[in-house]
Amino acid sequence: MRGFQGVSRRRAELALAALFAIVAALAIGDSLRIGAGWGEDGPRSGYFPFWVGAILLAAAVAQLISALGVRPREGFATREELLRVASVLFPAAVQVALMPLLGLYLSSALLVTWFMARIGGFSWAAAAASGLATAVIAFVVFEIWFLVALPKGPIEELLGF
Amino acid sequence: MDQLGLLLNGFAVALDPWNVALMLIGIVLGVVIGVLPGLGGANGVAILLPLTFSLPPVSAIILLSCIYWGALFGGAITSILFNIPGEPWSVATTFDGYPMAQQGRAAEALTAAFTSSFVGAFFAIVMITFVAPLVAGFALRFGPPEFFAVMFLAFASFIGMGSGSPLKTLIVTMAGFLLACVGLDSVTGSLRLTFGLTELMRGFDFLVAVIGLFGIGEILTSIEEGLAFRGAAAAIDLSVVRRTWAELPRHWALSLRSALIGCWMGVTPAGATPASFMSYGVARRMARPGEVPFGKGRIEGVIAPETAAHAAGTSALLPMLALGVPGSPTAAVLLGGLMMWGLQPGPMLFVEQADFVWGLIASMYLGNLVGLLLVLFAVPWFAAILRVPFAVIAALILVICSIGAYTVNNAWFDVVVMLSFGVLGYALKKLDYPLAPLVLALVLGNRTEQAFRQSMLSSQGDLGVFFSNWLVGSIMTAGLVLLFWPLFSRLRGAVQVALSRRAG
């Protein structure tokens, strides 16, 4: 059988269970810090998160143990699948990262342009035009029509908004 | 029977021209959202929720619930034409719907699906009309221990009776509760689980989580299979509609059974997805052997899951309205919306805001009827949406999601949170962790904790308060039974095996 190229299910299960266990431990730690016992007027702030965290920790550890039993050959995602996911996730992350700098409209325009050109196979000119159209339409719909303020960047400032 | 009187009053509210217009807009938007991957019912409602602030609550919820109906209808379109379930509960529809489309019977399948959806939803709405006020009246007697018990029952039923592994469901539920604890503690005013980050003072907003988990997560999972949609073409003309409608009454028993399954599973927080599968399975087992086997294009295979799924999706609103406990992620989002508009869902809603509740219920009838007529005539246009190149759709959906996440609190941080939830949602889906309990725990976490605290306060720390009277005791017991059900059935199975070995 051809070798499996990618991330194995076992690793993914272990990683996720470990993540939950860490979150639980953090919650327990913070709850103890603010007090998880009984105060003068009832349970203290940390009571509920402490116990929830404790249950989560126990369950996550149980899941960790169970994940150790997964056959190592089972696949979580192949390399191609992960690459496809990355091809969407990374541009999206860039768009989010650029939002405070360039504003939502411009960063979204860039995202649309990128997607159409790189994934959709359109020409850069068509892609850029669509990106621009998206930004303009969104601007009209949200800023002017719905009167909802979305993050704006340097270009909008130049135009006087 | 003053329910009917109240209902007629509700129709007067719902038939206001402005509200009717919103109904139409909502349904169209809903179908578009249901057709597009990643924008599903809960997500679409979540994104549009902040934009409805300027509307009066009745109009806002009519718009949002019509979007919900539209999404329910829309999911069927992609299931049948493209073999892509638009919603998790449309998966069962693909089993027979897509083969029907491939055999050129797409219009028949679509008509059957839409009509069954209407029937299922109608059944559930009638049930809501008569049962909801009863439940609400009954729930007026609830105190903090009873409310906590109901929440406990809800989550226990997810863990015990849900489709996923009970351990994973437990993990995800607890994680949701922890996320709900982050931020300012409303009782003592102290900051919890913020670790010094000022942005976390606000806590995690469930809307942002929903958009990330169901929106971004959905896109990431559907991308894996490749980046194109290919499907059958379909146009519905009246002769096909009439022919199919003539044939449908033959399956009245099937519809009734599926509607009952749907109502039952929708009211308990199990949801529309297991309802559709269960109904399909029951239909297959109980069907008379026909010329065509199930899975190859049998119309019952479309009627059963669609009726059940819509009945379940609709009846999920019953516990939300009457008890304040949502039965599905979308109901959870609507619940959050109600709270945002200053309405307190639960038994008092029927008393204090009768206009609102009955206006909503009346709009459910109308919305479904209008929706049915609309989809019957407009299927080709909706189906054409999926011919738009994936690259464009995906980019637009991502932009819409980020706008949606931003408008909740005008916080860029929330958009980052959304993206993180998206990645988490992708991992959770791939590893079969259920998402619904996470969302429900996030929405209900604070109220559950409050109920728990108040109970503890009044009982001076005695846990026995949860069994102090027959009402709360029975709810808690039911919850415990459901919680440990998987253990019970495994024990029972082991005992049976041991007994049969001894006998044989």
Strand proportion of chain A, as a percent range, falls in 5-15%
Please outline the major beta sheet of chain B. 2 strands, antiparallel
Shape field of chain A: flat
In this structure, how is the largest beta sheet of chain A organized? 2 strands, antiparallel
For the terminal residues of chain B, how far apart are their CA atoms?
59 Å
Give the % helix of chain A. Answer: over 70%
How are the strands of the largest sheet of chain A arranged?
1-4
* Number of H/I helices of chain A: 5
**Low-confidence spans of chain A:** none
Q: Determine the number of helices of chain B (DSSP H or I, runs of at least 4 residues).
A: 22
Note the run of SSEs of chain B as H and E.
HHHHHHHHEEHHHHHHHHHHHHHH
- State mean pLDDT of chain B (0 to 100 scale): 80
**Alpha-carbon Rg of chain A, integer:** 24 Å
Q: What is the CA-based Rg of chain B, rounded? A: 22 Å
Query: Please, what is the average pLDDT of chain A?
Result: 82
Total beta-strand segments of chain A? 4
The domain count of chain B comes to 1
**Biggest interface, and residues per chain?**
A-B, 65 and 57 residues
Quick overview of this protein structure:
The complex is a heterodimer of chains A (about 160) and B (about 500). Chain A is mainly alpha-helical and about 160 residues long. Chain A has helices at about 10-35, 45-70, 80-120, 125-145, 155-160; strands spanning about 5-10, 40, 40-45, 75-80.
